């Protein structure tokens, strides 16, 4: 039971995408009219019914109708672009692909005040919504499960509401209000960048009807986001240092003499780390690169041979010391083709079905029901670096396996593999059944039952250690080999 206070006689509404209404009237006419009591309004962040401005807690109300005019196609982008969310790190589908996140790859959440999604409570029609996702700690509402076509507005309570909702509302509360009108709609949306990769498209329908005391709405939505690969954008395909000369202001990046362009400084590959314990090797001479294209041998002004560099550890033909001064840094391989195939944004498909209904038993009592079904498929591509430690062939160790290498030390060959992709499917459903009404002028009730469930399957591709090291029995017999590239 909740104590209900009398409402004020004036009301105003705030819409971020609409102008404020004006209520100015002729004084004589205003005095002559009798003020009528307004309908009750439930404000997010309080269990006491009151008018929109009778609470001291600041709140924003976002009108979803203007989202499509801004080119926004999903709820995650809408909420993450709000003023209160700006300045905080937000988990987008791209962010959850590049870095491990609670909820897994493809998840989208919202964080207020930089406290994280775990401390930002998300409600649907004033009631908690269960989390969806996989991996890590699945504790936050995935914004992918509700399409914009189901939503009328979003209320954002800027103050913390932990005293009402608990510790998951310390940063604030987001209340998603679904549509309650009789209008029906059919929408198609597509976004095509000027270059291929990262295309998005969406199709949805929504149908609502009132028949006597019964109201119902059914919404279906399907959206697809194409994969955006790192190599499909020039500004991501080659990680440059962007160093500038303080006097001239001109670029001072290392130039790769093989291309005549600034050196790509991403992740190294095609190299062997050399650990020399002879005590005679100059500092930094610890990386050997294989001349796989046949162009390092012709760069005598940049790269000496191993003999010229004074290395005590000998290398097979075709290897050159690199990465020990500014000249040799410029020819170090740090831009593998597999990097260009990695996903900046994953390939993702989301299908949603949402239905809700209400039945008015009387003017004071109403039953309601909601059903939400959602499926999200996400695919991402990545690469891995693999390396191991191998004894040199003449360092006195009987289990030495590195043919062609000499001296007292170890080598660590670096291998790149694209066997690191993954995909996942998340099925989410939520059902709500309840009844609300007024007992008298001072008391009301709202009783509901909710069931939410998230089921996920995930597949990840990984290179196992025994596949990298070779057969254990062969390695024990000294028959293993070391490939520099």
Concise account of the structure shown:
Helix content is 10%, strand content 33%.
Can you give a write-up of this model?
This protein has helices at residues 27-32, 75-80, 93-98, 162-165, 234-237, 306-309, 326-329, 337-340, 465-469, 472-476, and strands at residues 2-3, 59-63, 120-124, 127-128, 151-157, 172-178, 185-191, 200-211, 214-225, 228-229, 255-256, 261-262, 271-276, 287-290, 319-322, 343-345, 347-360, 365-380, 384-387, 390-391, 409-417, 422-438, 443-460. The strands form five sheets. An eight-stranded antiparallel beta sheet has the order 1-23-22-18-17-9-8-7, with no helix packed on it. The protein is elongated. It is mainly beta.
Mean pLDDT: 77
The largest sheet, given as strand count, sense and whether it forms a barrel, is: 8 strands, antiparallel
Instruction: Tell me the helix content.
Output: under 10%
Shape: elongated
Give me the count of strands. Answer: 23
Strand content: 25-35%
Radius of gyration: 31 Å
Q: Which secondary-structure class do the elements indicate?
A: mainly beta
Query: Strand sequence of the main sheet, in spatial order?
Result: 1-23-22-18-17-9-8-7
Low-confidence stretches: 1-39, 50-54, 471-485
**Distance, first to last CA:** 72 Å
Specify the number of helices.
Answer: 10
